[in-house]
Specification:
Layout lengths: L11 E5 L8 H19 L4 E4 L9 H10 L1 E2 L12 E4 L3 H11 L3 E5 L7 H6 L3 E2 L12 H15 L6 H16 L5 H9 L5 H12 L3
Parallel strand pairs: 1-5, 1-6, 2-3, 2-4, 4-5
Length: about 210
């Protein structure tokens, strides 16, 4: 098996940014599905579709094909699936976590929605931008990334549930939020690529939204 990414445990990652309100959702889905079919052939495992709800992918043929062949999983679903390459269509934090779990050891393509920006996850995961073929890079400066890593080290395992963990995150990250060098969505996206749970990512995002 190919060497896995040290934090996402994926062979490969790709994404379609939600950067054009005029782009049809079917076009973005087609790009992700095509890439995952290629990875499916290389990894010799059928692909899987992961969505927020079973209704999300209705009417998009490329996603319907993945679901018919490999299955469709949602956070609410009860069916169990084997690990394999995954297409995650417009996921929220909870759905992205499910997709990461199911794709572990294989590959993952994500179609982004503006309501949950994943640019920093994509950069941390070394994901290919399927619109232009480039490998995503972080918009964050090195010191901001270092402070995010510190916050993850001292609170990420518990998802910033404790008062000391929350205060530690505020101490290291509040200044960056106030200066506009980090926004709560970037922080949530970044920490999910470091193995933080969906609940932890949401908790950090809400914590940083309260920074004044």
């Amino acid at each position: 098996m190919a060497e896995l990414h040290p934090t996402t445990y994926l062979q490969a990652a790709a994404w379609v940014p939600d950067d054009d309100p005029e782009r049809p959702w079917s076009e973005a889905a087609d790009l992700a599905a095509e890439w995952v079919w290629e990875r499916s052939a290389a990894e010799n495992v059928q692909p899987l579709l992961v969505t927020n709800t079973f209704q999300n992918a209705i009417g998009i043929e490329s996603l319907g094909k993945v679901a018919r062949v490999g299955g469709q999983a949602t956070p609410q679903g009860k069916q169990r699936f084997e690990h394999g390459p995954v297409v995650a269509y417009v996921p929220n934090e909870r759905t992205l976590k499910l997709a990461l779990d199911l794709a572990r050891g294989y590959s993952l393509a994500v179609v982004e929605t503006a309501s949950f920006p994943i640019a920093e996850w994509a950069a941390s995961a070394g994901a290919i931008n399927l619109l232009d073929g480039t490998t995503s890079s972080s918009a964050l400066s090195d010191d901001v990334s270092a402070d995010l890593d510190h916050a993850v080290f001292f609170g990420g395992n518990n998802g910033w549930t404790g008062s000391h963990e929350k205060q530690n995150a505020r101490t290291y990250l509040s200044g960056h939020v106030r200066s506009g060098r980090l926004n709560p969505e970037q922080a949530a996206s970044y920490v999910m690529a470091q193995g933080v749970s969906d609940k932890g990512a949401k908790r950090l995002r809400e914590l940083l939204k309260k920074v004044r």
